[in-house]
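Progress report, Aim 2. The chain analyzed during this reporting quarter is listed below.
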Amino acid sequence: MPLTLFSALAVQAAVEDLLPVFTAEQGVAVAPDFDPTTVIERRIAAGARPDVVIGVTSALNALARAGKVAPGSLTPLARTGVGVAVAGGAARPPLATLDDLTTALVSARSVAYSRTGASGIHFARLLQDLGIADEVNARATVIEKGFTARALLDGRADLAVQQLSELAFVPGTDVVGPLPEPARHDTEFTAALATGPTAPAASALLHFLISPRAQASYRRAGLEALPETR
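Predicted structure tokens for the chain:
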């Protein structure tokens, strides 16, 4: 039986790069399932028990307190910030200041974001703080889950907001950059084991996810390895 892995979308590119290497080295297959962390939380609360979980650090801390993942296994992996992308070759709006960001958002034909992910939750709150929520949401492309930059490719939106690593995951798009400093929002991701007895291979996978090979994959995917993993 393969190991089961629930993983946040923000680290999907890195995880997909790493799993074949782990399988080749350990002879253990891994079946990954990628979702926003909020969806992963709901699935685990409903009774799902993956061998390994990767998600937003605060959420995994909450799962540990609830006895859903092993507290002693919490392992910080990487972080990324929220940013903006456009279709490949499209004009790149300036994002140096909050005024730049506000102008870009209200001028866009449609802004794509997801309300279920950490980035979308932050962005929805940011729109309220900027006083432009009604104006932007009136023509926004809000997706349930997945990669918002895909809405750039089919013409549904001309700006996409999500974690920088998620934006970079979609070929044919250009990442403009992170949100300006006053609106900056970094999200940290942590891995953990399920509670109760675990297969030795699950612990091996957790260890592999903080290896130098893993750190290189995080960097290629637009993530920053946390100090604990260096």
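The domain at 3-79+187-229 is CATH 3.40.190.10 (D-Maltodextrin-Binding Protein; domain 2). The radius of gyration is 18 Å. These observations will guide the mutagenesis work planned for the next reporting period.
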